[in-house]
């Protein structure tokens, strides 16, 4: 049976254009040590995702399309990463500003997070589930404050 380094070498040899982006390492989304793919050409991005997360979380079937692709940009670089760490980072962005669009955007984000949580609950650890719930709770708490501020501004009570 082939080990991971032999499989990786075969993949890199078969897809030379994507070879820089294909490595053995840690998936940004799930944290598993697997064969992972990142942006190619890399353009300064060192974030990588496993095939399972690309298909399951981002609905991208990059691996089967490698022969046709001349370049690929990862979900992180596209601003679409939905991993727990990026969710926490986005939480701070939502709290730092106030506007109707921002409130709607944060509500949409929470809805997306709830769907993801519901869809992946069986695969998530208790720690991941607890963190998602904490993010949702904090987002809703901050959204409530933003909504109150917005109402006061509309009434001229700032």
From TrEMBL:
<dbReference type="InterPro" id="IPR018866">
    <property type="entry name" value="Znf-4CXXC_R1"/>
</dbReference>
<dbReference type="GO" id="GO:0005634">
    <property type="term" value="C:nucleus"/>
</dbReference>
<keyword id="KW-0539">Nucleus</keyword>
<feature type="domain" description="Zinc-finger">
    <location>
        <begin position="25"/>
        <end position="89"/>
    </location>
</feature>
<keyword id="KW-0805">Transcription regulation</keyword>
<dbReference type="Pfam" id="PF10497">
    <property type="entry name" value="zf-4CXXC_R1"/>
</dbReference>
<protein>
    <recommendedName>
        <fullName>Zinc-finger domain-containing protein</fullName>
    </recommendedName>
</protein>
<keyword id="KW-0804">Transcription</keyword>
